[in-house]
Amino acid sequence: MKQQKNGKRLSAQDALVHFRTSLPEALDHHRARFASDIVEWAENFFIAPGQPIVLLPHQQAILRLFVSPAPNGSRRKNLLMSTVKKSGKTAMAALLVRYMAETSPPYSEFYLAANDLDQAVNRVFSAVKNSIEMDPDGRKRWTMTDRELRYGNGTFIRALASDYKGEAGSNPRGTVWTELWGYEHEKERRLFEELTPVPTQESFRIVETSAGYEGQSDLLRDLYELGLSGRRLTAGDLNELTGAPLGCFAEAPNPDSLVPIWVHEKGSLVMYWDEGVIARRMPWQVGPRAKQYYLEQEKTLRPSQYRRLHLNQWSQSEEAFVPIEWWDACREDVPELDTRTSLVLGVDAAVSQDTFAVVGVTRHWDPARRRDIAVRLWGTWEPVGGRIDTLAVYEELVRLTRAYRVAQIAFDPCQLEFFMANLKAFARVWTNRFDQGRQEK
Question: How far apart are CA 201 and CA 208, in angstroms?
């Protein structure tokens, strides 16, 4: 049967040409039908994993609130979501940034940051890329490389290394920050500030993270406290703002029941912060198997880590990294260190709040245990008046290099490059960088 165009009959060949030329426009109209509602868009176009995403009612409410306008008519610039481990935070962030990219003006810029480049690529970026690869229409519209996804209209999503200098002058429409609790150093805060939302366009940042450590995760703590100083929403508020049904958060069945969402209008912030056992809202977090899993986790994790990961509660940074019982189990009589034994010093710096530490290790003195490592000396320096006396650390390291056979000094380069360069020149000792922030291959 021949097709018609503008009332005229077309030949089979002309009909085929018309189909090919009109299909992209038809697809655009199809996608535009859902672009006005992020949930409908997600359920039609975002595949994770292997099938269109299924959003629970509370997730639908969060997404709609994140993209809804504030009272002044513009979208809020700071979107923070934090909940217990394996609650879909990464998928939600990936969904948000892809939706924003596909519905933003041409040539918009989106950046994904994390504690290191590997994490930036393997978390939200990977989730966005996978969703595109499993969407037949999406594959036609996106060009993908290892670190960048580029939409047909010139918009891109790019994974970042933690380099604030390299991002100076960027014009981000959106940024995503994964596990912000780990942003503890000045260079990381500078990157966060360098990629602040810009005033020339409707710009925003998304933070998806677990709870952090008291006294260390200051950047996340600042955002958290800003959120708490805002207005906590009720189930009735959420229903009015997003159409969410009462009870989409199980603990909030009535209009005046509180939900774990805060809005700070002056700070242009929406914060979803879910904690405690009630925050386990996903199907795999409830039931007998989940109960057994959490019992096992409680027995094998340190209490602070269990609370942080599985209850999303802030933890004390001063808790021992190695429980004292484990350390005591390694105790043995150690002979005095002589000047013939090769010694390796490990140095981890601090300027304030944290501890500056030096540890010396050797091979075990027992010939039958030569593959074992033995701790032979250590020292710690605490801040006095808010600062650590680095000169005292420097003098102690010089003393050790003169008193013992120091084979090398291994150090974390953060805050120690200049310090170690001087020591190497003065003490004539081999120094070796060991970056704790990078995953060893």
Answer: 23
Give, to the nearest 10 degrees, the angle between helix 57-67 and helix 38-45.
120
Query: Which residues, in sequence order, are CB contacts of 206 under 8 Å at separation 6+?
Result: 66, 79, 80, 81, 93, 96, 97, 174, 175, 176, 177
Residue in this structure with the two tokens 């109209």, named with its chain if needed = 29
pTM score over 0.70 = no
Residue 408 pairs in a beta bridge with 344
Question: Amino acid letter at 109?
Answer: E
Give me 364's structure tokens: 């075990």
Place of tokens 């060991």: 434
Question: CA nearest 313: which of 285, 282, 273, 283?
Answer: 273
Pairing state of beta strands 109-113 and 213-214? unpaired
What long-range pairs does 397-401 form, CB within 8 A, spacing at least 24?
Answer: 397/345, 397/347, 397/358, 397/423, 397/427, 398/423, 398/426, 398/427, 400/343, 400/345, 400/358, 400/360, 401/427, 401/429
Give the closest residue to 58 by CA, choosing from 232, 205, 260: 260
342/405 Cα distance (integer angstroms): 5
| Residue range 20-43, pLDDT digits in tens | 555 455 444 444 444 579 999 999
| Reported confidence tier of residue 435, pLDDT bands at 50, 70, 90 | low
Helix (H) or strand (E) holding 348: strand 342-348
State the Cα–Cα distance between residues 40 and 44, nearest whole angstrom.
Answer: 6
* 176 touches 111 (CB < 8 A): yes
To 10 degrees, the CA torsion angle through 63, 66, 68, 71? 150
Mean pLDDT of 349-357: 70
Residues 87 and 89: their CA atoms lie apart, in Å, by 6
